[in-house]
Predict the 3D structure of the following.
Amino acid sequence: MSASRSFRRRLRAHAEETSRRSTSRGDTQPHLIDVVDGMELWIGADGVGRVLPPIPDDAVPALKDALVARRQATLSGTCPACGARAVVHGSKKLRDLKPGEIARGTMAHTDWCVASDAGIADLVERLGGAS
Ligand SMILES: [Zn+2]
């Protein structure tokens, strides 16, 4: 079994379990539920799981702020810096996903957005990654 398949299996198991728990507890805030292969598994207020990279403790403050904005964008579906909205690949919408179903999505940040790939890469280039 490849690492990717193993990761997906663990992710599905978490998603199914957490979907049931989130629904029964009425969670309203995103929360971290596990770290799998160095990636964080978060559950959003909508009950949908997201896999996110960790934010390094030693990141320079401006980079940490950008990564926090990126995390908020991913968890909420709307970027707090530029207002971009998440789009799920394929014909489904987030609300149509079944427990344990895995989908990919993207967010088209504006060119100037600090939470975009280019914005984060620019910060790393100008300031470095660690403080
Ligand atoms: Zn943005």
Summary: The chain is about 40% helix and 15% strand. The helical segments are 3-25, 61-76, 117-127. The pocket of zinc ion is lined by residues 73, 79, 81-82, 84, 109, 113, 115-116 (CB under 6 Å).
